[in-house]
Amino acid sequence: MDPIKFSKDGIVVLDFNLLVGKATDYSDAIEKAFGAANDCLGVLVVENVPGLIAKRERLLTLASTLGNQSPEVLAKAHDEVTEWIGWDRGTEIFNGRPDLAKGSFYANPLYDVPETDSEKLRKHPGMTRPNKWLPDDLPELEPAFKDLAQLIVRVATLVAAQCDRYAVSRSLASYPGPHYLEDTIASSRAHKGRLLHYYPVDTLPAEYRATSEGAVSICGWHYDHSSLTGLTSAVYVRETTDPTTGALTVLEQVPPPEDAGLYIRTRGGETVRVGIPKNCLAFQIGEALTKSTNGALRATEHAVFGGSQTHLARNTLAVFCQPDLDAEVAKGLSFAQFGDMIYDQYHDVPAANPAAAL
Fold first, then answer.
1. Measured between alpha carbons, how far is 313 from 35 in angstroms, rounded to an integer?
2. Is residue 60 within 8 Å of 145, Cβ to Cβ?
């Protein structure tokens, strides 16, 4: 392979056209991005993804339209059992209070009905409930969401194959198998897409506008619980709404603010702002893979900060590529059980299992 390519922000760059080649070996690039060295960012980007720019523009523009729908319309997209399907705002707990900074729309990108087993539906609704679209009020949402999210899953499978190749080339004893991650992502019915609309910070209650660190954190420091997370670069927009109805009337895209966006803590503890080029997809390791590989590939701690331009909204899509429910991510711990633990961590639930109230 040629020398490792980096973006202007120092992120490892892979080329989609090379990823699809069976002979391509990106092991050195995977080690630089996802390895254990102190300067590893724990993230990489893939360039030259066919159709990405148009699909990204289509869906991320719709995120503002969705986020400014009336409460009555948004209620139609809210699942009555779990916050991890359809529209949700304010049920996640962040800094000890409901998270109003963002609205989320969750859906399985591959299967509208990912599970029919009644026991799994009862025990793990966040990972098994059917998708909930808005066919009457926002019919373009479903095809736009699926087009982009399915593309991310496809590219994630290619990145996963390179992670496997890296593990084999370095003889990582704790790695589960030579095709572990590729097979996990290619076969799973449990992937979850999350379309995010971050509301302008200056529209939030005063207590949400500052932190002890002096910056406005609109998504706090955390690890994803997936195996591999794929995400787009964000779109920043200036929104104008009708003062009477609240409906979105004007949407103006603006350049990304230099002090806002995704921040990552390197393996050495340094905080780095990560700019994702709009023609690229980014990928990060999640905690499920950390557990299943016994730390051979480690999750990336990251956060999103709003920056000084508090009048702007921010839209993006993340797709959490993760194992099937019954897959074991650690000895005696299935992914379904692990997912329930994460749910409880971020939601104010009365019992250890979110299905307990059913």
1. 34
2. no
DSSP 327-357: -EEETTEEHHHHHHHHHHHHB--SSSSGGGG
Collapsed DSSP state (helix, strand, coil) of residue 167? helix
Q: In the block, which residue shows the tokens 């910070």?
A: 201
Amino acid at 50: P
Structure tokens at 323: 């194992």
Tens-place pLDDT, residues 136-189: 999 999 999 999 999 999 999 999 999 999 999 999 888 999 999 999 999 999
* Helices marked H in the chain: 16-19, 27-34, 52-67, 71-76, 118-123, 125-128, 141-169, 180-187, 287-292, 335-346
What is the pTM for the complete model shown? 0.91
158: left (phi over 0), alpha (psi -120 to 50) or beta: alpha
Q: Which residues contact 91 (CB under 8 A, 6 or more apart)?
A: 83, 98, 99, 347, 348
Question: What average pLDDT does the structure give for the chain?
Answer: 89
DSSP 8-state assignment for residue 5: E
